[in-house]
Design goal:
With 167 residues, the chain is α/β, with parallel strands linked by helices. Helix content is 34%, strand content 20%. The protein has a single domain, classed as Uracil-DNA Glycosylase, subunit E (3-Layer(aba) Sandwich). It starts with a strand and ends in a 5-residue tail after the last helix.
C-alpha cells in the first residue's frame, strides 16, 4: 500500500468578478496534479456534466475548461489546501488544512457554494463552514468511484441545482 505523504494544493482557484456559484471538490487527484488543473482524470464526469448543463461541447484543453467555467459565472476550487493522502483516495485524507475562501468571497458575488461529493461536504462542514458561516449544497460526486450514479442522473441533479440559482 502507498504511504501517506503531505501534499500541497498545486494550483489556484478559478474565478472572476462575475462568478456567482462556487463549486468545491475535496483535493486534486493524482491526474489533476499532473495536469495542474481541476478534474484531470479522464473518467471523472465533471466536465461532461458541466458541458451538458450549459449545452456546450465537452472541453479538452485547460483554456476551454476555464472558458466554460467563467462564461457561466462559476468558480472552482477545493476544500483542502494541504493534507496527508494516499494516491487519489479521498477516504485516506488525514491532517487536513482548509483553503482560505476569503479571496474568492471578497472578489466575486458568490451566491451559493456547492460541494462535489460526500467527502468534500464532510470536510467543508468541519473546516470551512465554521469560518464563513455559509452552508454548502452537497451534490453527488462526479468521481468515477461514484458508480451508482449514471452520467444522466448526475446531469439531472446538478442541472436542477446549478440552473435553479439566479445567475
Amino acid at each position: 500500500m502507498d504511504k501517506k505523504k503531505v501534499e500541497q494544493h498545486p494550483f489556484p482557484p478559478l474565478f472572476d468578478k462575475d462568478s456567482r456559484l462556487l463549486i468545491l471538490g475535496s483535493f486534486p487527484s493524482v491526474k489533476s496534479k499532473e495536469m495542474n488543473f481541476f478534474y484531470g482524470h479522464p473518467q471523472n464526469r465533471f466536465w461532461k456534466v458541466i458541458a451538458s448543463i450549459y449545452d456546450d461541447p465537452i472541453p479538452d484543453s485547460i483554456e476551454e475548461k476555464k472558458r466554460l467555467i467563467l462564461e457561466n459565472h462559476l468558480a472552482l476550487w477545493d476544500v483542502i489546501a494541504e493534507c496527508e493522502i494516499v494516491g487519489s483516495s479521498d477516504a485516506s485524507i488525514k491532517n487536513a488544512r482548509a483553503n482560505d475562501l476569503s479571496e474568492i468571497l471578497k472578489n466575486a458575488p458568490i451566491q451559493k457554494i456547492i460541494v462535489n461529493g460526500k467527502t468534500a461536504e464532510k470536510l467543508y462542514i468541519k473546516y470551512i463552514e465554521p469560518v464563513t458561516g455559509i452552508k454548502a449544497v452537497a451534490l453527488p460526486s462526479t468521481s468515477p468511484a461514484n458508480a451508482a450514479w449514471s452520467l444522466n442522473r448526475l446531469v439531472d441533479v446538478w442541472k436542477a441545482d446549478l440552473l435553479g440559482t439566479e445567475l
